Amino acid sequence: MSGGFADHWEDAEDEFDYRVIEPIDHSLTLAIAAQGAADEAVSAAEAAANEAANAAEKADIAYAASVEWSLEFVVASAEVLLGVNELLLGPVLNVRDGRTAILTDIHIALVEQLDGVTIETRIWDVTNTTYRTAHTGTLDPVVNRRSYSALTVDVDDKERFWVYVTDIDGDTPPTVLQVCVAGVYLDEP
After folding, report:
1. Rounded mean pLDDT for each run of 10 residues along the chain, 189 residues in total
2. In which domain, by residue range, is 164 found?
3. Are residues 85 and 162 in the same domain?
4. Pick from 75, 100, 123, 177: most CB atoms within 10 A?
5. Which pLDDT belongs to residue 8?
6. φ and ψ of 66, to 5 deg
7. Model-level pTM?
8. How many domains is the chain built from?
């Protein structure tokens, strides 16, 4: 059957396919691809979450098996000056064989300071010939106590801690500086 109604029917059917069926098929193809990508993203996220949980569990086990240590020392018994003050060598940390030591916390205390101060906690090597800076901390004006936590600085056997004041703001120097370094011993892996 040609012409008339049949031609219009085929034209209408072609138009319907073009305007409705093809866009639906295209949308379905995109939706299937998006679902696949989403499945991959969920799998990757689950793997990352499992890896993080395993790492946290290992850290918890290691921390539970650790032994804490702390050393407190007076850096300046009177006026705090730029530089090393009264203590150049500092306390030594004894790390037994089969263990490692990690510096995790530094606590700084002053009797008084008015304008701000910057302090480096340093570690001398075992031969006392070279040092490294473990941490630099700044105390804002009139802040006399400050703690720094969650540090992860390795400390070797017989290394010594000492403090170097790098900056004192204002005209009035702080008075009395005391420092406590603390951490954990862990069994070597």
Report:
1. 64 75 80 82 80 72 78 96 90 94 98 97 94 98 97 97 97 96 93
2. 67-187
3. yes
4. 177
5. 67
6. -85, 165
7. 0.68
8. 2
